[in-house]
Design a protein that fits this description.
Blueprint: E1 19-20, H1 23-32, E2 36-42, E3 45-51, E4 53-56, E5 65-71, H2 75-82, E6 87-100, E7 108-122, H3 126-140, H4 153-158, E8 159-165, E9 169-174, H5 182-186, E10 192-195, H6 215-223
Antiparallel strand pairs: 1-9, 2-3, 2-6, 4-5, 5-8, 6-7, 6-10, 7-8, 7-9
Length: 227
């Protein structure tokens, strides 16, 4: 599946020109984002929760697999792993800039966003669960999972992993500058864009170790460092 789905649930209704159809853009966005938000209905009311995620293009689900994880005691994990056919909506947004226009109406933001809709699947297979947890660690610090001890049986039993197919998803992106009406431009008010990005500070070594910062952490900090 090289292109994104175009279902009734993923079809854009406004600013359709901002929609993206290349599935590679979805995976790039999911790889860059550190946090997603999971929406579900619990006890008859909508709930939206932040959590970590990772996308696996080679996952067993249609279009690839999105993995989410949490404590097996967390109510949302319990719901998604015990209710067959539980539906979820997962969203990710990266803000790239503040668009300061000449009118309040035309103020906006440059952003990249994705919406994934689907049925939650409990990951029971030990090999898939182990791979998913390694991918989740590497989503935060690429290459780090290989440097850590393996999870114990107790830790694995305490961790729930949920998979969502990436078969039904949409991506929407705004780039560029201010879009003002000519009368506002003629009025002479300042307008422009304030670029935004996530920037890492200096790495802080845990006081209980005197080891140097490992290469994987140095690379990650450098990737997120000032430019």
């Amino acid at each position: 599946m090289a292109t994104l789905s175009n279902t009734l649930r993923t079809k854009l209704t406004r600013e359709r020109e901002r929609g993206r159809t290349d599935r590679a853009e979805l995976f790039a966005l999911l790889a860059e984002a550190l946090v997603c938000h999971v929406g579900l209905v619990r006890d008859g009311a909508p709930v939206v929760l932040p959590t970590l995620h990772v996308a696996d293009p080679e996952g067993p689900d249609e279009g690839g697999t999105l993995y989410l994880h949490g404590s097996v005691a967390a109510p949302w994990i319990v719901q998604l792993t015990t209710a067959p056919g539980a539906q979820v909506c997962v969203t990710v947004t990266l803000v790239d800039g503040i668009v300061a226009a000449r009118s309040s109406f035309n103020h906006s933001m440059n952003y990249r966003s994705a919406v994934i809709l689907g049925e939650a699947r409990k990951v029971d297979d030990p090999a898939e669960k182990d791979r998913a947890l390694d991918l989740l660690v590497d989503q935060i610090v690429p290459g780090r999972a290989a440097t850590l001890r393996r999870s114990t049986r107790k830790e694995l039993a305490a961790t729930g992993v949920v998979a969502v197919s990436l078969g039904e998803a949409s991506v929407k992106v705004r780039t560029g500058g201010v879009e003002d009406d000519q009368p506002d431009i003629d009025a002479g008010t300042w307008a422009g864009v304030i670029p935004l990005r996530l920037v890492a500070g200096e790495v802080e070594t845990d006081p209980l170790t005197d080891l140097p910062v490992p290469p994987d952490v140095r690379r990650r900090a450098a990737d997120l460092g000032p430019r």
